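The passage that follows is intended for readers who have already worked through the single-chain material. We present the inputs for a multi-component assembly, then the predicted structure in tokenized form, and finally a short commentary. You are encouraged to pause after the input and sketch how you expect the pieces to fit together before reading on.
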Amino acid sequence: MSQFEVYSPEGLRMDGRRWNELRRFETSINTHSHAADGSSYLEQGNNKIITLVKGPTEPALRSQLDQTKATLSISVNVTKFSKFERSKSTGNTKNERRILEMQTALVRTFEKNLMLNLYPRTIIDIEIHVLQQDGGILGSLINGITLACIDAGIAMYDYISGVSIGLYDTTPLLDVNSLEEAAMSCVTLGVVGKSEKLSLLQVEDKIPLDRLENVLAIGIAGAHRIRDLMDTALRAHAEKRVLNASKR
Amino acid sequence: MSEVISVVSRNGAFQKTMIMEEFSSDESEDDYNMTGSEDEEEGEEGAEKSSSKPTSKKSSKNIDSELMTPGELITSDPIWMRGHGTYFLENDTYSSVAGRVSKVNKLLSVIPLKSRYAPETGDHVVGRIAEVSNKRWKVDIGGKQHAILMLGSVNLPGGILRRKSESDELQMRSFLKEGDLLNAEVQSLFQDGAASLHTRSLKYGKLRNGQFCQVPNSLIVRSKNHTHNLPGNVTVVLGVNGYIWLRMTSSMDLARDAPPGGSTQVSGGEASGRAAGPTGAVSLNPNASLSITRLEEESSWKIYSDENDASITNQLKQTISRYANIIKALAFCEVGITHERIVLGYEASLAYSDVGALIQRDNMEALGADVLNAERMRGNAE
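Having made your guess, compare it with the prediction:
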């Protein structure tokens, strides 16, 4: 088997996973307790992401003040050292079209999930730092934001878990890494809790319509698994906090 | 009502108990809350009630201990009223935050593990002026929104009978300007949950002669008194919002701590001596050597002074920083911060001669353990 074979006849992918296996998923919650109201650190495969949620607070600018609900602002900082090769772009990466598009997608996803109407005249500022990226970055950002928002105590309807799925020939591959992402067409999903509702569906490449349902099915199953992983991590964290408090 | 909620939530939050499979009936909780109206239901429940009464406090701790995460179904029973931290679709009530369930009578809410400070009327808070605007100051009290302090809700130099004039509006910055710290009381809440403050008492107002310190607001428990005199000539103001001010003890602080009626009182005037002034201010002991009347104190520009007293010694500054580090250590150990614990922490901290050494991780942990230990020892001794 060649090292660069995307999907071997034996059913193994480049990194040794099967088609329906997620990457390593590890999180810590409340990592930056002094700097933000809610924070999380997420490792999904080789994606390493810090998410900070500041707010709800008084907005700095009048233009950010909404009388009926909180303003949600999300800024993504993709560090220049996050890929194999250092990014050569000289300008500010924040204004790259790709990043802006990602921010818009995230805002639209979470505007519907967070109960912003409970926090009128405030701003919720979400700051993301991508320390290392290895494909399926948007899904990982969604997971990071979900955890950080829960940590901040912001009311939300449900977890949102994000995952990317590739389609190799006729086989859907769950949770693609950057090499797979480059080799095939991919879909990113944001799934609401344990339901089959999608709050985000991003398709940037062509995908045969008759295969899409298959891809979505495995994506939703994977997202549910991620939700469970996040839930377990959150509960462990919460139990620890409560235990700390009860120790007195 | 709100007081009951906070008590119940605290019991839940600090008590790690078994997770219950199903909601038990809320009888024991009714017991806990309806202390006054027990006689109505003597009948069949009478025996059970009387037997459960001594343990009612304990049982209320066992309830409400379930940990919820967002989107989790709490109950399908439509009898519950939905409180904070919940939402509903048809008859099903779901949690919208991660935290513990709190049930008060028929009100079901989920208290998040951590959230921003939510002001309540009567809270004693410490805040920082964020903005000076038309006839009001905006004060950062660590809440979701800035609190508002109206020009009319502060004591201005010149006594209580003084009238506010337009010139006061123009020189608002000479009283309080951006960055100034003050302590105040929450007077009322606006529709959207923002707080309106007042400083119409001598115990409130601008803060000086000390150091600011911040801890998570969940660590401060609401109590009757939030200003405490500590050993070493230091006074602490524990704002309910988690903002803490440590300062040199002033004559005012000493007067407040003196026993009512004043043991040093020589002759009559006991009633008038300690009576609260028309502004709710605690008046000074008339026999105190400083002999400033309340009116003089109130009318003086000194209450808005930016200058620290010259009498602060280096020794005192060290003590204040020691207290600040003790509070940081207690917060690090996630120990609720009370007057007693700060004093215990101070006693334990005297083992470290270097104040800076207190905030090294090991020392913080040791200090937290020491405080809890000391507390336990005293509890047993009594």
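Commentary: The longest strand of chain A covers residues 47-57. Chain A touches chain B through 39 residues (CB under 8 Å). How closely did your sketch match?
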